[in-house]
Amino acid sequence: MIPRDVEKIIHYQLQGLPVVTITGPRQSGKTTLARAVFEGKPYFSLEDPDIRQLAMDDPRAFLGRMPAGGILDEVQRVPQLFSYLQTHVDTLGRMGLFLLTGSQQFGLMSEITQSLAGRTAFIELLPFSVYELDQGGVKPSALDTLLFTGGYPPLYDRDLSPRFWLPAYVTAYVERDVRQLLNIQDLDTFQRFLSLCAGRSGQVLNLSSLATDCGITHNTAKAWISVLEASYILFHLRPHHANFWKRLVKSPKIYFYDTGLLCWLLGIQEARQLAAHPLRGNIFETFIVSELMKTRYNRMENVGFYFWRDSNGNEIDVIADFGGKLMPIEIKSGQTLNRDFFSGLERWMALAGDQAFAPTLIYGGAENLVRKGIKIYGWNKAGEVLGSRG
After folding, report:
1. pLDDT tens for residues 313-360?
2. What is the pTM assigned to this prediction?
3. Which domains can be identified in the chain, with CATH numbers?
4. In angstroms, rounded to a whole number, what is the distance separating the alpha carbons of residues 123 and 65?
5. Closest listed residue to residue 137, CA positions, set 292, 3, 8
C-alpha cells in the first residue's frame, strides 16, 4: 500500500471521536486506507446485497456483531443505519470505534450530521497527490505522463493502462451513481455532457451555454453538475469578491479532480499528444488546482480557494484565503520562465495592498527559486505552496 498523507490525521481524530467518516470519489483508496488504519477489525461493505439487506432488516443485530467497532464501507447505501449507530456508539462510550466510508455527498453529509453530530469527523480522500506518489516511489518522471495517467490508485497498484481502466471506471461507477441519484435514462446525452464539462475545465462556467451545446435545459445542466460535484468528479472554484475594482466576474470556474479522467474525456489517447494539445494549459491548471485541493484535505489546512478576474480580463488563477490574508497563486504550463508570467501577480499585489502576502508562481518547469519577492515552484512541488507563507 502506498502511504496516504491523511492517515496520521485519521489516527488523531480517532483519539477524540467514536467515528471518523472518509468520503471521496470511488476508487480513491478509501477502503484500503480504512482497512490499514483498522487492521484486524470487522469489515462490512454495504455494496454487498446480502450485507446491505441484513443491515436494513435488523440494524441493531448488525451493529451488535461489532462490539469493539469496525469498518462500514459505502455507508450511504443504508442511511437508516445512522440513527442506530448513534445509539450504539453512545452505549459503548469509547473513542475510535468506527470508520465509515462513502462516495457520494448527496444525503450522506446531512444524514450523518443529523444523526452523528459531535460524534464524527469528516475526512475527504482524493486520488493520489504528487507527494504521495513520490513517497511511494511510483511518481512518473515526466509531467505529461502524470497528467495523462492521473492519480487513481488502481493505475499504480496494478498493471493497468488509463486508456482501458478509465472508460470502465466511468461506466461502472460514474454512470451508475448518476442513475441512482437522478434516474437518467439517456446515458448518451449524459456522456456528451460529461465530455463538454471536460472541455470547460479551468474555465468560467456558463450553464446556459453548456446546456445549449448539450441539448438539455438549464435546470438539467445544473442538476447534472451537482451530481458530478457530489460524486467527486469535479468541483467549483468561486470568484473572490475583494472590491479592488468594481466590475468582477461572478460565475464560478469548474475543475476536474483528476487529469487522467479529464484527458480520457477529451479523447487524448497517449501522453505525447499533450505537448501540442490546444487545452494543455487548462489541463495543467486543473492538475495544479487539484493538487492544492489535495494538500488542503490531506493536511487539514484551514484555507479557502478562489479565483479573481475583473471585467477587463485581468486574472489571478487562485487566491488562497488564510482568514483574510490573501496568497495569490499564478499557474503557467510553460517550462521556461518569462516576464509575462509575473505581470498579473505584480498588478494584483499593487491592488491588494496589506491584504496580500507570499505571491506565488507554479509553472511547468522544475526549478524552485525566488524572483522579485515572488516564490516560484516547479510542478512537482505544488503541494509545498500552502506550507510556505513567509
Report:
1. 789 999 999 988 999 999 999 999 999 999 999 999 998 888 899 999
2. 0.94
3. 7-124 (3.40.50.300), 130-283 (1.10.10.10), 297-387 (no CATH)
4. 25
5. 3
